[in-house]
Design goal:
The complex is a heterodimer of chains A (443) and B (334).
Chain A: E1 7-9, E2 20-22, H1 38-50, H2 64-78, E3 82-87, E4 90-95, H3 118-130, E5 137-138, H4 139-150, H5 156-169, E6 172-177, E7 180-185, H6 190-196, H7 200-207, H8 214-223, E8 231-234, H9 247-255, E9 258-264, E10 274-285, E11 292-298, E12 303-308, E13 312-320, H10 324-335, E14 353-360, H11 367-376, E15 381-386, E16 389-396, H12 399-406, E17 413-418, H13 421-440
Chain B: H1 11-20, E1 24-25, H2 27-37, H3 42-45, H4 47-50, E2 62-64, E3 70-72, H5 84-93, H6 105-114, E4 127-129, H7 142-157, E5 159-166, E6 172-185, E7 190-199, E8 202-210, E9 214-223, H8 230-235, E10 243-247, H9 253-260, E11 265-271, E12 276-282, H10 288-296, E13 302-306, H11 308-333
Antiparallel strand pairs in B: 1-3, 2-3, 5-6, 5-9, 6-7, 7-8, 10-12, 10-13, 11-12
Classes of the chains: A alpha+beta (443), B alpha+beta (334).
C-alpha cells in the first residue's frame, strides 16, 4: 500500500505550513513532501534557483495548485535557503545560496525525497536485523523469521522482491546452493571502509561536492553519519546535480554503443518539445557558462549536435548502433574544432572557420594577461608578433563562441579578423554600443 | 546498479535508522532526530508513522515501552552498508588524479584491490570540460601531495603552520598561518587554502594561498582555536556593496546571465514593462577583477549600474578598447 501523507491547508492554499492537519491515511488533498518522480520537481527546483524573479503565474507549465505543492515541497527540503521577495508583480520565490561558501549542495535534498510504501520501510529494517549476525538464510527462513520473531506477516512474493532489490543494490549478497537462493548481509559496512583506509573520509568529503555525481558521495557520507566540513568549491554550479538523474542512462548507452531517444524542451521548444533519436558520445561541460550538454550524432539530420542537459527529458535507451565506432571516430575529429560545445551548422565533417584576434598586452606590466591567454587558448595558437603585440588564432566550427570569450579581453583587442563579416561587425558594433552606454551617455 | 534517486538513501530512512540505533527512545528524542535529520516539515508527517498507533497504521518499528518511552522491535542497531552505487562511485573516483592527495600509495593500492571487482559508476572520459584552464595544479607531484596533506591536517586540528610561498606577484612570503578551509576551483583546476595570518599568537588578517605556490610548510606544534565560523569568516571577505546590473532579454541574455552567474549569491527582480532584469550580485572582494571581466564579456546585453567605482572600472576598460580598435584601424587605413 502506498503511504500517503495528506494535509489540508486552511489558509489561502499557497503559503507556509500553518493550518496543515494530518488526516491519517486517507487520500484527499494528496500533498506529500516525498515524491514518486524526479522529473517534474527537477524543473521547479531549477527554475526557483536560476530564475529568482519569476512569480507564480509565470510557471506556465502546470496549474497553480501544482505550483503551490511543488513550492511547499521545495520549502520543506531547502528550509532557510528559500527566500521570498515582493514586487509589484507579486511574490517571488527563489533559492538563494552563496555557492562558493557552502559545504553541502542543498539541492541534493531532492534526491533524498523518494516516496515509499509501509512495507518498503518495514522490510528494510527488519530484513537487515534478521541478517545482522552474518547468517545466510533462504527466502522461506526469512519469511518465517519475520512472522515468528517480529509478528509481521508478509507474503513470500513481497519478501522475494525486496531481497532481490537489495541484492541488486549490493546491500545483501545472494548465493545459490542446490537451486535455493540464500541471502546474507554485505560485509561492506561504511565503518569498514572508513576505518580501514586512512584518508578515505577526507576524499569522500571532497568528492561529495564534485561535478561528477557528487550526490552519491554525499549519500555515502550521510549513511556513515559524516559531513563535509573542510572543502569549498569555487565556480560551483550546484544546479547541475539535478541533471545527474539523466546520466546513468546516457552513460549506459555510451558504454553499450546504443542509440538513445529523448525529448528536448529547449527555450524555443517549451510549448512544442521536439523528440530526437541520437548516438551519444560525451557530456560537455562549460565551467564558465554553467551549462552542460550531451554531445551526440543525429542520424536524421546527418550531423553532430549538442543538447542542453537541463532541457532534456524522457531518455530511453534504444538499439545498438552498428556504426558507433565510425561515428565516434568522426566525432573526436570534430570535437577538436569546437571552441566550446557548438558544431556550428556543419554536417558530418564540415569545414572550419579561422578566427584571428590581435591584442595589445604590455609585456612589462601585464605578463599575467599573456599567461591567461596561454592557459585559456584551448585549440588556438598564441604568437608574439612584436613588442606588446600578440595574436590568437584558431580554426573553429563556431566563431561566435570565440568572440564571447574574446570579450573577456576587452581593453586589449586591436583587431578581429576571420570568422564572418557578421560576427566582426557585431563585435565592433557591441564596443560602440558599450562606449555610448558607459562613456558618452553614462558618465 | 541501483538508482541515485532511491528511498534507501532518503532522509526518512536515515532518520528512522537513527531512532532504531537505540533500544529505547522518547517522543522528544524522536522529534529531535526528525528536526536534525529530516526535512523542515517532516515533523508534521513522520511522527504519526513511527510512533505506535492503536489502529496499527504506523510502520510498527517501535512498540510501547515503560514510562511513556518506546522500544524498537528490532534486536540490533541498523547496519550501515556501503551500497553498490557507493562502491561504484568510489571506483570511478580512483581514476581521478586528485584522489592520490588523500592517500599514501600503499593505502591507494589496498583500496584499489578491494574494489577490483567493482565496475566504475562512470568513465571519467565521458565528461569533457571545454574551458578548464590548462595550467592546473600537478596533483601527482610529491611535494604538492605532502604540502596538501599537512594543510588538510591543520584545517582539522587548527595547527599553526610555518608557510613559505611565492605570491601571485612573485614576492616571497614567509609567515605563520592557521588554515581555515580548502577550496577547489574546477575551472582553474587548483586548490587554494583560506587562512588566517598569525602574529604573536593573534590573528591579524585573512589570506588565500595557492597550494602550488607553497615552497615549504611545517607544523609548529602550536594551535589557534579561535577560528571564526564559516559565515563570519567569509562575511568579512564579502564586498560591502553588491554590484547592480541591468540585464536585457537581447540574445537570450537573461537566461544566459542567470545560468552563468548561478554560482553567485544574488537578488533578481524583473521589470515586466521593459523586460529588463535587475540583478544584485554579492562577491568575495578578491574576485572583483574576475567578476568585472565576466560581466564585460556579456557586451551591451547587460549594463553595470552600481557601485560607481565598479562601473568606472568597466568604463575605463571600454574606453581603452574603443580607442585601441579605432586608433589601430585608422593606422591600418593610412
Amino acid at each position: 500500500m502506498q503511504v500517503t501523507f495528506v494535509c489540508y491547508n486552511v489558509s489561502d492554499g499557497a503559503e507556509g505550513i500553518s493550518g496543515i492537519f494530518l488526516k491519517g491515511m486517507s487520500r484527499v488533498s494528496g500533498f506529500s513532501e516525498l515524491i514518486k518522480s524526479f522529473e517534474k520537481t527537477r524543473d521547479y527546483v531549477r527554475d526557483f534557483f536560476i530564475y529568482g524573479y519569476k512569480v507564480r503565474n509565470e510557471f506556465e507549465r502546470k496549474s497553480s495548485r501544482t505550483y503551490d505543492n511543488e513550492k511547499r515541497r521545495v520549502e520543506s527540503w531547502l528550509g532557510d535557503n528559500l527566500k521570498y521577495d515582493y514586487s509589484r508583480r507579486g511574490k517571488h520565490t527563489s533559492i538563494s545560496v552563496d555557492c562558493g561558501h557552502i559545504h553541502e549542495n542543498p539541492l541534493y535534498s531532492a534526491y533524498y525525497s523518494k516516496s515509499f510504501t509501509d512495507n518498503d520501510i518495514r522490510l528494510h529494517f527488519l530484513l537487515i536485523d534478521i541478517l545482522y549476525g552474518g547468517e545466510s538464510l533462504s527466502l522461506k527462513e526469512i519469511t518465517d523469521r519475520l512472522s515468528d520473531d517480529y509478528q509481521q506477516v508478509f507474503d513470500e512474493q513481497t519478501v522475494r522482491g525486496k531481497l532481490k532489490e537489495y541484492a541488486d543494490e549490493g546491500i545483501f549478497v545472494k548465493s545459490r546452493i542446490k537451486k535455493t537462493d540464500y541471502f546474507s548481509l554485505s560485509k561492506d559496512t561504511t565503518e569498514s571502509f572508513f576505518n580501514e583506509y586512512e584518508g578515505l573520509s577526507d576524499a569522500v568529503k571532497f568528492f561529495s561536492e564534485d561535478e561528477e555525481f557528487g550526490v552519491v558521495g554525499n549519500s555515502l557520507l550521510k549513511t556513515a553519519e559524516m559531513k563535509n566540513d573542510i572543502f569549498l568549491r569555487k565556480h560551483n554550479f550546484i544546479v547541475h546535480t539535478l541533471e545527474d538523474i539523466l546520466l546513468p542512462d546516457i552513460f549506459d548507452a555510451i558504454d553499450n554503443k546504443r542509440y538513445i531517444s529523448f525529448v528536448n524542451f529547449g527555450t524555443a521548444n517549451r510549448v512544442s518539445p521536439v523528440s530526437y533519436t541520437a548516438v551519444p558520445f560525451r557530456i560537455l561541460c562549460s565551467l564558465r557558462t554553467g551549462r552542460r550538454y550531451l554531445a551526440a550524432y543525429v542520424p536524421e539530420y546527418n550531423r553532430f549536435n549538442s543538447f542542453r542537459l537541463d532541457y532534456i527529458k524522457c531518455i530511453k535507451k534504444g538499439v545498438v548502433c552498428e556504426n558507433y565506432d565510425i561515428y565516434y571516430e568522426k566525432y573526436l575529429k570534430n570535437e577538436n574544432r569546437c571552441f566550446g560545445v557548438s558544431f556550428g551548422t556543419r554536417h558530418e565533417l564540415g569545414t572550419v572557420t579561422p578566427v584571428k584576434l590581435t591584442l595589445y598586452i604590455n609585456e612589462k606590466t601585464e605578463g599575467f594577461v599573456i599567461d591567461r591567454l596561454n592557459r585559456e587558448k584551448r585549440m588556438g595558437t598564441v604568437e608574439r608578433i612584436s613588442e606588446n603585440i600578440y595574436t590568437y588564432t584558431a580554426d573553429v566550427f563556431d566563431p561566435n563562441e570565440v568572440m564571447h570569450w574574446a570579450k573577456t579581453f576587452i581593453g586589449r583587442i586591436i583587431k578581429v579578423e576571420g570568422g564572418s563579416e557578421k560576427i566582426r561587425k557585431k563585435f565592433y558594433k557591441d564596443i560602440e554600443r558599450m562606449h555610448r552606454m558607459y562613456i558618452e551617455e553614462g558618465l | 546498479m541501483g538508482s541515485i534517486f532511491s528511498e534507501i538513501f532518503g532522509v526518512y530512512y536515515r532518520a528512522v535508522s537513527d531512532m532504531l540505533d537505540r533500544s529505547e527512545i522518547t517522543e522528544n528524542e524522536i522529534n529531535h532526530i526528525i528536526s536534525e535529520k529530516a526535512f523542515r516539515d517532516s515533523v508534521l508527517f513522520l511522527p504519526s508513522k513511527i510512533i505506535p498507533r492503536k489502529d496499527g497504521s504506523d510502520w510498527q518499528l517501535l512498540k510501547n515501552g515503560a514510562d511513556g518511552k518506546y522500544n524498537r522491535i528490532t534486536k540490533n542497531p541498523p547496519v550501515k552498508i556501503a551500497a553498490d552505487i557507493h562502491k561504484r562511485w568510489l571506483k570511478s573516483k580512483l581514476s581521478d588524479p586528485k584522489i592520490k592527495l588523500f592517500f599514501d600509495d600503499a593505502t591507494y593500492k589496498r583500496l584499489s584491490e578491494r574494489l577490483s571487482d567493482t565496475l566504475p559508476l562512470y568513465d571519467r572520459r565521458n565528461y569533457r570540460y571545454t574551458d578548464m584552464f590548462s595550467d592546473g595544479d600537478d596533483f601527482s607531484d610529491e611535494k604538492y601531495r605532502e604540502n596538501f596533506r599537512k594543510i588538510l591536517s591543520a584545517v582539522k586540528t587548527h595547527e599553526i603552520l610555518d608557510i613559505d610561498f611565492t605570491s601571485s606577484r612573485n614576492n616571497r612570503v614567509h609567515r605563520f598561518f592557521v588554515p581555515v578551509k580548502l577550496e577547489y576551483s574546477h575551472k582553474n583546476n587548483r586548490f587554494r587554502v583560506y587562512s588566517q595570518m598569525i602574529v604573536n599568537g593573534k590573528s591579524v588578517s585573512g589570506g588565500i594561498i595557492n597550494i602550488a605556490r607553497i615552497n615549504t610548510v611545517n607544523g609548529t606544534g602550536e594551535y589557534y582555536k579561535d577560528i571564526p565560523d564559516t559565515k563570519t569568516y567569509f562575511s568579512e571577505r564579502r564586498c560591502t556593496v553588491p554590484v547592480t546590473v541591468s540585464v536585457t532579454p537581447e540574445r537570450n541574455g537573461i537566461e544566459r546571465f542567470m545560468m552563468e552567474f548561478a554560482s553567485y549569491e544574488k537578488h533578481t527582480e524583473m521589470d515586466i514593462e521593459s523586460g529588463h532584469c535587475t540583478v544584485k550580485i554579492w562577491y568575495d572582494k578578491s574576485d572583483e577583477t574576475e567578476l568585472l571581466i565576466q560581466l564585460l564579456s556579456f557586451g551591451p546585453v547587460i549594463e553595470i549600474l552600481d557601485p560607481d567605482d565598479f562601473r568606472a572600472q568597466a568604463a575605463e576598460r571600454i574606453k581603452k578598447q574603443y580607442e585601441l580598435l579605432y586608433s589601430y584601424e585608422t593606422a591600418d587605413n593610412t
